[in-house]
Amino acid sequence: MTIPIQPGISLTVIPTEKFKTIRLFIRFSTPHTRKKATSRTLLTSLLETNSLNYPTQTALSAKLAELYGASFGLNVSKRGNLHQVNVSMTVVNGKYIEQEDVFSQAVQFLKEILFYPNICDNQFEQTTFELEKKNLIAYLESVQEDKQTLASLKIQELYFNKNEDQKTPSFGEVSDLEKLTASDLNETYRQMLEEDCIDIFVVGDLSPEVVQKEIAQLPFAQGLRQTTDIFYRQPLENQIREEKLTQEVLQAKLNLAYATNIYYDDRKRYPLMIFNGLFGGFPHSKLFLNVREKASLAYYASSSVDTFRGLMTVQTGIDGKNRSATMALIEAQLASLQRGEISDEELAKTKAMLKNQYLLSLDNPQSLIETKYLENWLPETKQTQKQFLNHIMSVTKEEVQEVAQQVSLEAVFFLDGE
Amino acid sequence: MNKKRYEQINETLYEEVLANGLKVYILPKKDFHKTYGLFSTNYGSIDNVFGYQGESLKTVPDGIAHFLEHKLFEKEDGDIFQKFGEQGASANAFTSFTRTSYLFSATDQVKENLLTLLDFVQEPYFTPETVEKEKGIIGQEIQMYQDDPVWRQFFGILNNLYPKHPLHIDIAGTVESIDQITADDLYTCYETFYHPSNMTLFIVGDVNPEEVLEWIQVNQAGKKFSETKEIIREFPVETAAEIIPFSAIQMPVNRPKAVLGIRGFQEQLPSNAKDQLVFRTGINLLLEMLLGNTSHNYLQLYQSGVIDDTFGFEFSFDRGFHFADFSTDTNEPDRFTESIQKILLNFRDDSEVNEKNFTLLKKKMLGKYFQSLNSLEYIANQFTQDLFGDYTLFDLPQLIQEMTLADCLIAGEQFIQNKAFSRFYLEPLKKEV
């Protein structure tokens, strides 16, 4: 059940006896920009490191240990046009440890973190600021050491090349980070608390009344909170963007980006899910079977869709000399789906896999939260479990074929060895 | 079927050893949509020299356990993923140093999926052609890991600590070693290690245990297995003197990565299972006191910029080996490894090792334990490790509560020795002038 706290702030309680824990999750959402992404990422490091009343990491960690090893962290993410700062905390349900007030203490802890940060005279404490900034710069510079991540960031940069904000990852840019000051971050903090939309979630064996009473103690400011269209759209371009990067790697990566123009609130989302499952979403998909298993060209070859940006990506790890063979095979798989070459068995299998995936997600506290978050933002898409499964099950071959015909290749990124 | 009730964690576990030797665990979990099945053999990448009591031993190519894992998915009539797909389940497998495990997650057709799991693992199909074809895929997998600095860092320190022991070899082997693998080799390994008496089956989900056990019993009764023979595994004997104290490699990374390792020796271990579990728990608590994020040592290293959030440590305890590794990205690898080594060697006199911290960290450990029980996969994986005899994952809360500070100090005496340390650095490529 979802309870409005004030305009732009809501509390959703998901009572369940399944878990031995209680999960608290607070998400701050704002229109994504390059500048905000960078400063908000640094803000999460600062808020996670210490606070006014827990001035060192060890004091903060000791409090978490005291709360029976509560898990706590902040991170950033992106969905369509939104930039999100996520605060999460998981505590053991008090009944297992004979400490009934553990949830109440967890809320008090989050209150310290969010409302009493280590700020003095309108700026973050200087030593912490300098150290966390330095650490974050080092971290961002090392992100590309993971070559799958590098390839995935590069293909997005290429696909969104005309939009400075959208091509920036959720964690921002090192060059922007270097310029930030301790007082800039105070402003970032203030803005987030006062202007972001806030979705609060609690999952576990607790009554909504108890949860509401505790959450009411968080002193959120009254104000106008900025909302936006969650979906990002961009026009098609008539030329495919290509980029090749050479680094000292053994395995090459070939990543592709396609425009789908299909969004979360569109009925075509369901045929798109089936299409993706058949194309490269599952181990029985055409990419897995033909690129990896039959041609033995790759260790991984898969596809995924983003229905908040109308995007589909394909990712492969291959031997660099097989680039054109791999490319031809990927195109052949898509062409086959465009011709509607889908057996009844393949269709049934993909539906069964999607159903399984959906039901599995109901066992995961964070998946339950993500579904509710989208219901808060897109109330018109709200549906029962049965309705969702009916949508999946009723997709026809022709609808899948139509989706396959609608996707268009926009960008190709290739990482090769020297 | 043996039924065991664990009040403190509110779980009931069912256990049975079948006539063919297969050990079966069933854990009912009300309200979960998911049923998770894990079928695991006590056979991993390090088991490369083996045989039966009284017979001569065989040596097989590195990476064969993992290769076998891949090949079991392929049958004469196609890929087993297809069958799981038809039954709406997702399936996977993984190979570690000491185990190979096959699994499915399903929300429907649990019986069909469980029987598919048993049948595909118990009906091998290897031909020279399918074996050859797999070499390309696994070659790609090996290369992918070779490009991963974290993986290279881990195997870098293992190579120093275990220069002869197969633990230092990549689980998937090397491109050269897998090239030697034949279908006959796969059958040899299969027949030795996939005997039911060397395997464990764990089922967890919203199931009826009696019914599930009957499915398994009927399935197993319809198959023939050779008689149970005792498996012998042989490993090179190594001494502390053979540890390589330092090595480094260069890779395209931005900052140096440093690891400090300590090798444990099996002869230092207590002999009975419970004492070994106390030892493992004791080391974990001791390391938390000395270097965990509540310690002054950690704060000091963090604030002086020697470590950052990439710092981490782990104590690994498995069949036949145990070691600890401490790693970080840092611009001062020497200062990092020297500081950590000094802190560890000084554990007896460190002011952090006191009753107050011990009590706090026991509390933390207990809480983390309860959080981990949300994951059905974690529960199943832990159970099939089967390292401590009758002591299982579900006995841990009581054991944690009974731990004393003295247990930690005794474990430290057994494990932390100056001669057992090694350092490994992964450095950025030198810029060409």
Structure description:
- The complex is a heterodimer of chains A (418) and B (433).
- With 418 residues, chain A is of the alpha+beta class.
- Chain A is built from 15 helices and 13 strands.
- A six-stranded mixed β-sheet of chain A has the order 1-2-8-3-5-4, with helices on both faces.
- The longest helix of chain A is centred in the last third of the chain and has 18 residues, at 344-361.
- The termini of chain B are far apart.
- Chain B has two domains: 2-233, Cytochrome Bc1 Complex, Chain A, domain 1, CATH 3.30.830; 240-428, Cytochrome Bc1 Complex, Chain A, domain 1.
- Classes of the chains: A alpha+beta (418), B alpha+beta (433).
Features:
heterodimer, A: 418 residues, alpha+beta, Cytochrome Bc1 Complex, Chain A, domain 1, 2 domains, 15 helices, globular, B: alpha+beta, seven-stranded mixed β-sheet, five-stranded mixed β-sheet, 17 strands, 41% helix
Class from helix and strand fractions of chain A:
alpha+beta
Average pLDDT rating of chain B: 95
| Strands ordered across the widest β-sheet of chain A | 1-2-8-3-5-4
The CATH H-level superfamily of the largest domain in chain B is: Metalloenzyme, LuxS/M16 peptidase-like
Give the class-level CATH name of the largest domain in chain B. Alpha Beta
Oligomeric state of the chains present here: heterodimer
Main β sheet profile of chain A: 6 strands, mixed
Distance between the termini of chain B: 72 Å
| CATH topology heading of the largest domain in chain B | Cytochrome Bc1 Complex, Chain A, domain 1
* C-alpha end-to-end distance of chain A: 56 Å
Strand order of the largest sheet of chain B: 1-2-3-11-4-10-9
* Helicity of chain B, as a percent range: 40-55%
Q: What is the approximate shape of chain B?
A: globular
Q: List low-confidence stretches of chain A.
A: none
CATH fold group of the largest domain in chain A = Cytochrome Bc1 Complex, Chain A, domain 1
